[in-house]
Task: inverse folding
């Protein structure tokens, strides 16, 4: 029986994680949950899973939640304090980090310092300072296990090989990794993307996810983020990463080893599988998703991404190449631009312009920045992106 804390339990990943837990009541106990402001759903989750602690991030929502949900559950401080208290709690075995955006930075650091296993969906902190988080995990005996389907697929292909240096040791044993991308809502869109609406961008062909990641899929920024995430997780260089458009989302990614042999991980597009694996690792326990019917799946197609039409992907690779604090600038500017697009204040095609403009105004240093320096750059980039809006 593992004790699980879910930070961001009311989101798409959080809800799927609770479905997995529902199907495996003898394997997992929910000890803590958190939300930003969706108190109605959080109240239902608390009633069903009876966690010892809850944290509501937003102050007014926290007050409202405290007034209507009482009993055995302990209410933690709103804001990042409550999230960090959960991340460091003694009784937690696995922290599922399913927050969205840079807000997961401090909880991830806290969980690693407390030596926890972190099942990581919240990729943005890994984009901002992935190498530093991996070093911190080594230092304190913490562990990051990927939940995102593509990094999880690579992890599953790689882990059969025991290598020195933990996850970051895999880079030396790999010729390349094949990072698959669904292509998002507009891969087949004809004509200009300048006037596409948020509603159209949120209509993802295969995955049902939160709004931020769905827009990042439509711009292909999500694939850029994943490139940076896997470079940090597995010690890969940019040259070792090949991005391939695979519309069916059946092959979740693949690894080509030094001898030319390729292992791929496949399955139906359902996040419950990688979520379950990060929580049961290193065991494989029971099926929580439908089996893949190869005949029904039919053709599997692969194509090169169009960098001209999707400039966010090119910007992300530029940031990956620059390294240092540039990925943090990329992430911050993207968060600002995506929020503005969703609010109807920015054209889809201007998302890339805001990010490019912010990146152009930043000079990354030569050495690996500290966490404090990354957070400073993050604030600077958000301000700069807002000015450019
Ligand atoms: N969804 C997927 O299938 C998928 C796949 C791969 C990777 N990921 C990654 O997983 C992460 C979560 O994605 P998602 O799709 O589950 O997002 P989501 O549906 O938007 O859920 C985000 C969760 O975080 C909470 N939250 C949002 N802003 C917060 C803040 N400022 N402070 C505290 N809590 C906050 C939300 O609470 P409220 O509900 O109260 O707003 C919700 O519980 C992202 O980094 C994404 O890139 C997602």
Result:
């Amino acid at each position: 029986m593992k004790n699980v804390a879910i930070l961001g339990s009311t989101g798409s990943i959080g809800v799927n994680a609770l479905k997995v837990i529902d199907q495996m009541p003898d394997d997992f106990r929910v000890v803590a949950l958190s939300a930003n402001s969706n108190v109605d759903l959080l109240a239902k989750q608390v009633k069903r899973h009876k966690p010892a602690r809850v944290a509501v991030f937003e102050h007014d929502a926290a007050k409202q939640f405290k007034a209507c949900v009482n009993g055995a559950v302990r209410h933690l401080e709103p804001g990042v304090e409550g999230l960090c208290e959960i991340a460091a709690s003694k009784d937690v075995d696995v922290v599922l980090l399913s927050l969205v955006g840079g807000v997961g930075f401090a909880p991830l650091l806290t969980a690693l310092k407390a030596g926890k296993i972190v099942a990581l969906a919240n990729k943005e902190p890994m984009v901002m300072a992935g190498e530093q988080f991996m070093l911190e995990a080594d230092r304190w005996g913490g562990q990051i296990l990927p939940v995102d389907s593509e990094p999880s697929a690579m992890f599953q292909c790689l882990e059969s090989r025991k290598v020195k240096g933990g996850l970051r040791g895999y880079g030396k044993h790999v010729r390349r990794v094949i990072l698959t991308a669904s292509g998002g809502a507009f891969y087949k869109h004809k004509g200009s993307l300048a006037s596409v609406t948020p509603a159209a961008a949120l209509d993802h062909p295969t995955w049902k996810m939160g709004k931020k990641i769905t827009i990042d899929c439509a711009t292909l920024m999500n694939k850029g983020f994943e490139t940076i995430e896997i470079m940090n997780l597995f010690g890969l260089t940019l040259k070792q990463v090949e991005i391939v458009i695979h519309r069916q989302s059946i092959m979740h990614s693949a690894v080509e080893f030094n001898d030319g042999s390729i292992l791929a991980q496949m399955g139906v597009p359902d996040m419950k599988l990688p979520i379950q694996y990060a929580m049961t690792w290193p065991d494989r326990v029971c099926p929580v998703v439908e089996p893949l019917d190869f005949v029904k799946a039919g053709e599997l197609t692969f194509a090169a991404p169009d960098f001209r039409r999707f400039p966010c992907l090119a910007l992300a690779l530029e940031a990956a190449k620059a390294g240092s604090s540039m990925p943090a600038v990329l992430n911050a500017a993207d968060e600002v631009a995506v929020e503005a697009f969703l609010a109807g204040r920015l054209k889809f095609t201007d998302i890339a312009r805001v990010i490019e403009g912010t990146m152009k105004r930043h000079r990354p240093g030569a050495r690996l920045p500290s966490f404090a320096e990354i957070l400073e750059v993050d604030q600077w980039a958000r301000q700069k992106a807002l000015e450019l809006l």
